[in-house]
């Protein structure tokens, strides 16, 4: 049995989409029915949450165009969020995923919600972890792209100095690798920011009513990036959705409240 | 050599502890100002530019900064148009040089082309148009352009502006960032070929584009010319050699802050505190992340900067910088007329600079001292610099014909299907 510290064998596929103009790199692990995981703005990091999902599902985790090492300029091939959604639908078809579970975190949560709104029959179930994509004037989404690096931990985590947050934030010790990691993170913010800057609202509110999949929404009550007020907004807009809010938790519940998150997700997916 | 008076419009009356509590851009509280303080900062700035225009400078130059306390010039063309009419009415043969209208920021690029055409007509053909990608915070925070799109927007807008100036007949523009069914500006520029300049901070791609396509290249050294100058200018001329264009000094412009008084000691007494104000409360109070928002610099550039940040010179120390630091790093050239002219002559000669933009007002420097600085520079320094490149074979192709230049048409990019109208 896989435990928290075990990472499954992860393979990698490259899938050409968008008339051959973009090769999306996908990390694949586990066995079972398909699960598509869409990562947050900082890029894909394989974490214990994904390892847990891979115990019961075949997890497909695509890297957003531009965020794959060695292929940074793929981002210039795609210009609108609507086109991103079409490219991801094409990816799902080319991977041969039939009715996958779709899970998305933060920026990836927005993409997941867009995908499920545009193609209501695509997911069998939808899990959104503190997604962005809506806007309330009284609760402006924090501008994470413009936040200086030393202030990011406190924006993302309720306990930025706790072991879970520290493990998620750790950088390589080798100076060369560290520079590469920082440059990669900066560029990932730039690539995803193309579809979220200056205000991460591209009209998702107008489309959310189209979501037909069973939906679970998870939120950290102390989320400083996207206030917990947005949890209710998503829940109200998606008919029949379930909502769980975790106390003592920031923007990334699967890191700060790992046990509660997997419990809620496992319970929901059955 | 062509010598411009460059000026910014800083708010001159910020509190002493400003830099401990505030940044100088984007969210700087307007409640720190008074109506009188704003009026006087702008009025004095305009008067100082006009004094320069009457004092024998070859150009008066300004640039663009939105939502900033260190340069309250959201659109330099407003200032330039006032200068264009004033100088034309007074019969002053001085170039009008808005150095950096930002095209990475602009959502209305045709407006930029129109404004410049208008200024050229108002000035009787004395416009030297400067175009710039734009500062990261200004394009993205002040104007909402995604950082990763800023450079692409600049590239596209530049082609539109050049085409709008030069095409004789209306055309349709189907861009990624703007679409116009019919581009047919009235008026077109008076000059047949506008001597166009691009301003950069050292990106080799920008330098290469300027050299290949025949734009002038301006380097604005806020980071300390003694620290960065050799790197930047050597890079520029090496790229020129690779591109295969002559090392013509007139294609290169350099901005330098200068403070002239009767003696070196007096320069420090008179200008020291105002220079410290300028750099601590201005550049020093722009945080790094606002100069390079994620996506604004290509990933390879980010890697290069992380490995070797020396292009940024003294920037990291600006918030607490002293007069002596500024002089030692060459952020400022200060002293008696002979100290200043010796330094500037040597620097411009060493690096092949044919256009010097002297910034003679800065920070909290009061009007009477700005005027003194302008007068001393124009009488005791400028005449000694003017002939630096006179005895060379080089011609100035980046200056208006009416003012002695011989501008040529900028080349279209190599990979475009567009055809020049003439």
Highlighted features:
heterodimer; A: 270 residues; alpha/beta; Rossmann fold; B: 422 residues; TIM Barrel; eight-stranded parallel beta barrel; globular
Task: Give the gist of this structure.
The complex is a heterodimer of chains A (270) and B (422). Helices cover 35% and strands 18% of the residues of chain A.
Topology:
The complex is a heterodimer of chains A (270) and B (422).
Chain A: E1 10-17, E2 22-30, E3 34-38, H1 48-54, E4 58-62, H2 81-95, E5 101-105, H3 107-118, E6 125-129, H4 152-156, H5 163-169, H6 175-193, H7 204-207, E7 214-220, H8 229-237, E8 242-246, H9 253-256, H10 258-269
Parallel strand pairs in A: 3-4, 3-5, 5-6, 6-7, 7-8
Antiparallel strand pairs in A: 1-2, 2-4
Helix pairs in contact in A: 2-3
Chain B: E1 2-6, H1 18-21, H2 35-53, E2 59-63, H3 76-90, E3 95-102, H4 109-122, E4 130-132, H5 136-142, H6 150-166, E5 171-174, E6 179-183, E7 197-200, H7 204-213, E8 216-220, H8 225-243, E9 252-260, H9 264-281, H10 288-291, H11 299-307, H12 323-329, E10 332-335, H13 337-351, E11 355-359, H14 367-385
Helix pairs in contact in B: 2-3, 2-14, 3-4, 4-6, 7-8, 13-14
């Amino acid at each position: 049995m896989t435990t928290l510290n075990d990472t499954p064998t992860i393979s990698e596929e490259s899938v050409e989409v968008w008339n051959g103009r973009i090769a999306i790199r996908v990390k694949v692990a586990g066995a079972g029915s398909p699960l598509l995981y869409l990562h947050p703005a900082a890029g894909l990091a394989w974490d214990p949450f994904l390892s847990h999902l891979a115990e019961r599902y075949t997890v497909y985790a695509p890297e957003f165009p531009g965020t794959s090492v060695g292929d940074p300029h793929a981002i210039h091939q795609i210009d609108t969020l609507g086109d991103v959604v079409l490219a991801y639908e094409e990816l799902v078809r080319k991977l041969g995923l039939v009715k996958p579970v779709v899970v998305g975190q933060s920026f990836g949560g927005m993409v997941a919600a867009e995908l499920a709104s545009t193609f209501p029959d695509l997911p069998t179930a939808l899990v959104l972890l503190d997604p962005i994509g809506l806007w309330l004037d009284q609760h402006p989404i924090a501008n994470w792209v413009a936040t200086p690096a030393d202030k990011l931990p406190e924006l993302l985590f309720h306990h930025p100095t706790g072991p879970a947050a520290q493990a998620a934030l750790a950088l390589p010790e080798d100076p060369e690798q560290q520079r590469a990691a920082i440059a990669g993170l900066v560029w990932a913010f730039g690539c995803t920011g193309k579809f979220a800057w200056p205000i991460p609202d591209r009209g998702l509110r107008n489309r959310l009513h189209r979501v037909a999949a069973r939906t679970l929404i998870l939120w950290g009550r102390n989320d400083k990036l996207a206030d917990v007020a947005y949890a209710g907004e998503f829940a109200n807009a998606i008919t029949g959705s379930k909502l769980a809010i975790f106390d003592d938790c920031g923007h990334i519940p699967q890191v700060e409240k790992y046990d509660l998150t997997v419990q809620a997700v496992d319970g929901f997916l059955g | 050599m062509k010598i411009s008076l460059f000026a910014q419009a800083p708010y001159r009356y910020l509190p002493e502890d400003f830099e401990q509590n505030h940044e100088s851009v984007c969210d700087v509280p307007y409640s720190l100002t008074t109506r009188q303080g704003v009026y006087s900062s702008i009025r004095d700035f305009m008067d100082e530019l006009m004094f320069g225009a009457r004092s024998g400078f070859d150009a008066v130059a300004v640039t663009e900064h939105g939502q900033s306390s260190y340069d309250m010039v959201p659109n330099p063309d407003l200032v330039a148009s006032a200068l264009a009419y004033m100088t034309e009415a007074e019969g002053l043969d001085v170039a009008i040089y808005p150095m950096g209208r930002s095209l990475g920021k602009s959502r209305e690029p045709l407006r930029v082309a129109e404004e410049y055409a208008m200024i050229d007509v108002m000035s009787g053909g004395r416009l030297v148009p400067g175009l710039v990608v734009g500062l990261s915070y200004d394009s993205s925070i002040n104007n909402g352009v995604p950082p990763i799109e800023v450079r692409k927007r600049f590239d596209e807008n530049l082609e539109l502006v050049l085409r709008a100036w030069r095409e004789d007949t209306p055309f349709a523009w189907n861009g990624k960032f703007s679409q116009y069914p019919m581009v047919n500006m009235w008026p077109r520029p008076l000059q047949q070929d506008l001597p166009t300049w691009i301003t950069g901070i050292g990106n080799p791609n920008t330098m290469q584009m300027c050299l290949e396509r025949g734009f002038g290249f301006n380097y604005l050294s806020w980071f300390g010319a003694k620290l960065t100058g050799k790197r930047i200018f050597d890079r520029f001329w090496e790229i020129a050699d690779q591109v295969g264009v002559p090392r013509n000094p007139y294609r290169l412009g350099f901005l330098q802050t200068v403070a002239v008084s009767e003696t070196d000691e007096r320069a420090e007494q008179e200008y020291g505190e105002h220079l410290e104000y300028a750099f601590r409360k201005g550049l020093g109070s722009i945080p790094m992340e606002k100069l390079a928002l994620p996506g604004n610099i290509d990933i390879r550039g980010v890697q290069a900067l992380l490995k070797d940040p020396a292009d940024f010179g003294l920037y990291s120390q600006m918030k607490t910088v002293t007069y002596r630091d500024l002089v030692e790093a060459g952020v400022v050239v200060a002293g008696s007329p002979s100290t200043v002219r010796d330094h500037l002559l040597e620097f411009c000669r060493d690096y092949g600079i044919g256009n010097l933009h002297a910034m003679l007002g800065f920070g909290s420097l009061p009007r009477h001292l700005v005027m003194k600085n302008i007068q001393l520079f124009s009488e005791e320094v400028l005449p000694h610099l003017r002939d630096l490149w006179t005895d060379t074979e080089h011609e100035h192709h980046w200056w208006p014909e009416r003012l002695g230049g011989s501008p040529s048409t900028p080349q279209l990019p190599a990979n475009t299907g567009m055809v020049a109208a003439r």
